[in-house]
Amino acid sequence: MDEKKVMLSGIQPSGDLHLGNYLGPLRHWPEMLAEFDCYFFMADLHTITVRQEPAQLRRRVLTQVAQYIACGLDPEKCTIFIQSHVPAHAQLGWVLDCYTMFGELSRMTQFKDKSSKHKDNINAGLFTYPALMAADILLYQPDFVPVGEDQKQHVEICRDIAERFNGIYGDVFKVPAPYIAKVGARIMSLNDPSSKMSKSNPEGCVFLMEKPEDIARKFKRAVTDSDTVNPVRYDPQTKPGVSNLIQIYAAATGRSFADIESEFQGRGYGAFKPVVGEAVVETLRPIREETERLLADKAYLESVYKAGAEKAEYVANKTLRKVYKKVGFVPR
Q1: Which of 213, 224, 238 is nearest to 190 (CA)?
Q2: How high is the pLDDT of residue 214?
Q3: What's the pLDDT at 85?
């Protein structure tokens, strides 16, 4: 039997997961488990490039572990772990810092973006995080890293670092390919359909753990337009707000755009928006309830992330030992 290809993905627990995360990549991740040997981690080391409130960070990490499981990631079929529980990430991150060029780092768009938003805290970690991200990936010798279009730059610099290191020391790292995963719907903000749904705009964002009444309220207030002749039509160019709602409704119910347009023909936004809100409430209800149940079972959650860290550490340390030997460190 052929060995499964390795797939690795991490999300920063810098904010609560939302509908865009779920209807985008997250709900398709369970489908990968049959095809790939999957590693999913909470990238908590990366979050501290921006100041965090410690208790909130711990809460978000544990909630995210529970949400991954609630969204269908079976810990028996994949490895779920917390980045900071595997010291090899930071250890290889430093080595790769020394094989990453200043010019490469200064061209990274995320550094420019975060620097402009956090002018009072432009720290070294914010600048060198691509080397840590490369370490996150290369430790597990993955074949693929699932990325959205906006993250391809991260995989490209990782490949450049791996190829540079391999060019000096031989075949140490597998050079991973970006895997443009089936990402599902690209969900936009409810109050600003020109931008993606984001935790930075909470009124336009629906969080996985949000109360049903708050979700309903946000959908009732969602931006549409002034069209009164068959207003519920999918047309992203002229009707971005209502097109976003149609896309959300289609993703939540599995129905086609044409079917939705037909159902609401001649009916206004006042009829449509609450129906979309209700569909989202019912889509998220089992995830919220299962997450709450898991968070109440601290012993089980701890067993998941400890077992995950143990498996991840075993794989990561094999790579780290090889790297340390290649660069000339004396073995312990």
Answers
A1: 224
A2: 96
A3: 98
Does the domain made of 202-292 have the CATH classification 1.10.240.10?
A: yes
- The CA-based angle 328-131-50, given to 5 degrees, is 135
Task: Assess whether 220 carries a catalytic annotation.
Answer: no
What does the pLDDT average to over 231-245?
Answer: 92
The residue annotated as part of the active site, out of 114, 218, 239, 273, is 114
Among 54-68, 99-113, 145-159, 289-303, the range scoring the smallest mean pLDDT is 145-159
The one-character DSSP state at 15 is S
Supply the DSSP symbol for 80: E
Active site residue 114: yes
User: Other C-beta atoms within 10 Å of 270: how many?
Assistant: 10
Phi, psi of 265 (to 5 degrees): -60, 130
For CATH 3.40.50.620, the residue range(s) in the chain are 5-185+298-327
Q: Taking Cα atoms as reference points, which of 241, 258, 227, 185 lies closest to residue 23?
A: 185
Choose among 136, 82, 95, 144: nearest CA to 321: 95
Q: Which part of the chain has CATH 1.10.240.10? A: 202-292
CA distances from 309 to 42, 85, 143, 148, 262 (A): 11, 6, 20, 26, 50
| Domain 5-185+298-327: assigned CATH number | 3.40.50.620
Exactly one of 5, 174, 199, 322 is catalytic; which is it?
A: 199
At which residue do the structure tokens 């993905």 appear? 9
Amino acid identity, residue 128?
T
Q: Which of 5, 174, 196, 220 is catalytic?
A: 196
